Amino acid sequence: MKRIILSMAIVFGTCVFAQEKKSDTAKTKNIEGVTITKQVFKKQSDRFVYDVAASPVAKGNTTFDLLKQTPLLSSTDDKTLKIAGKNNALIYINGRKSNMDSESLAQFLKNTPAENIQKIEVITVPGSEYQVESSDGIINIVLKKKMSDGLNGNMRMSNTTSKYNGSQASFSANYRKGKLGVSANLSGGENIEAQTYTLRNGTAKTSNESTGDIDDPNKNIGGYLNIDYQLNDKSNLALSWNTWANKSYNSTVNLFNTIKTEDGTKYTWSKNKEDVRSYNNSVNLNYELKTDSLGSKLNVNAAYLNYKRFQFTDNRTHMSDVNMGVGKMTTQVFQDLPQIINNFSGMVDYNQKFKNDLTISIGGNYNKTKTDNDSKNITYSFNPIEAPDSRPNHFIYDENIYGAYLTIEKKLSDKISGKIGARYEITNSLGTSDNAPTDELKRIERNYNNLLPYLSFNYAINDKNNISYSFSSRMRRPSFWEINPVRNILTDDNYTQNNPFVKASSTYNQELTYMYKNSYFLILNHSYIQDAITQVPLQGYPVSPDGTVGPNPVLRYIRTNFGNKQEMSAMIGIQKSFFKQYWTTNFNIGVQHNINNGSLDIDPTTGDRFRNQDGKDIVYTNKTNSTSLLIQTNNTIRLDKKKTWFFGVNYFFVDKQQIELGLLKSLMSLDLSIKKVWNEWTFAVNANDILNTNIVKIEDFQENGNYNYIHQNRYNRNVMVSLTYNFGNQKVKKVRDIEGASDAIKSRTR
Predict the structure, then answer these.
(1) Tell me: domain 41-747, CATH 2.40.170.20, correct?
(2) Which of 358, 426, 575, 722 could form a disulfide linkage to 16, CB 3.0–4.6 angstroms apart?
């Protein structure tokens, strides 16, 4: 449903204990007392490695639960994972990016036993060989190597109770026979995403307040099928298919509006209804050839992605009074907003390994994307009655991306290693509209080239001390929905405006890490974002390019490039196990400093400028800094000797901080859980945000007198009950997991 999308990264870091193991005394009796320290968490040249097999937290957990307890990772909504200081976390399995969409991937991780995981790699600053955007990081899940043929799988059912009730179920299976490997998943569910809003904006003389509820029912079904065949000892061929469908019918907005002007106060109701359905299908063909015994290999991928979204909205405004009665309808806006995306992709990678610990990687990729947005917008006015205002717009966007990279990785000694590389990208795009309101919107052509360097260095000072540094340059291209020039209406005077003029932003990331005993660490991050893509509010009386002034003040949330931004963070963390691993706790604390430097004085899509009631031009600015405290701790308490009962206590706190929309007030959440493992069954109860403190509040006061306030309750307080059953031969492994050539495009469809 129409809502303001807020994104924030919760800094979370941990480190893990050292496990001792008795040495072999069969041959040398005089070293009987010597122990060997197992490195559970360590830093390599370009990644952190968490040895799950040596950690007690894996027992009885799902992969998703395990990831939430992995150093540097966190989840604030129990759906998505974030890496500390990063915008997004991309999931890889055995070095290959998962070919699932976010919803089915979350269910897959929640239904995969953590006992199947050997280690988890967290790549905070990905190298040039990875196709990632902005400051995205990578989580690589390495499965245990199990060679037995057979069939295994799991079934999972869960029910979540918050304002409404929701349910989810999934079935997964893996089959291995000789050279053939097949894996499949089917999952689905339904829920109602509920929100309660208070939106308040205006000046000392005028104001507009909207309060009410948004209910968004969702039904989902999807899955994947992967077929992998080993042609011979050196080559594999694989075909994968992913599908996901969502239906959200009768999604409703009910907001009561209080509009105060110098002429008095009026009251209205905004009652909106929306029907949406979307489909996402992709197919990927992969060929892998091993060229020598050192691990050199060639990878070739070809993929096709088809995404369809059909959205129909009926937005109605009714007269009202101070008693909130529903009166005569004054306006009605019908919107038909379809979007169809077709993407063809190809990718070739070659890694050459040498005996002297040298690896050279070279590769290239090509993406061709076409989006078709045939929008229709009709406005009816009844007070007074006016002729319908029809504004269709057929917007087509074509994009071609050519990319090539080269990386060189070298281990110089037992203590020193490094990696250097660069990616070169060429982007050609053209957006055309057959019925745009301005000539500038009828043809928007953008062609640009980018050289994106990368560098990492790791120095193991001794067995206890390690220091590393990484630098990376990345781009962030706008999502396809962000450049579709349509309005998403919330009320008559409050809506979001997409922008086809949004250009790609550039991000420069630096990270310095110090580790002590592989158990304590300090991480310093710095990101500089140029031409940051975000959403900012413009409010006042709109003045069109021909000088016509709107009769009422409005608030538009504009998608745009909003100046430059810097993000800096510093955090320390520790993880320990006490009382013979009955209690495992991790705690981290850090600070984040944001520097915002942006301003906007015009709606780039319509050309409208804004004035206050005195006729003075209005410019929205955000040139403020903020420093925030961040705290998070996760605790797992084993309640019995047999390791079948577990109790969890998790807590996070994020201090107030400055974002593009204004000052985000502090957030925190306390979560409790209880889990019982019985043979192949796992029963769990999770109580999330039990204090009901994870509620978004944003305030912004401008020097020109404008203010803006947002209060958003997403009903994060909930109770979830889940039941999981694992069946079959648990030693089955997949032949391999395949990276899709269209993966870099998929994230821009959502």
Answers:
(1) yes
(2) 575
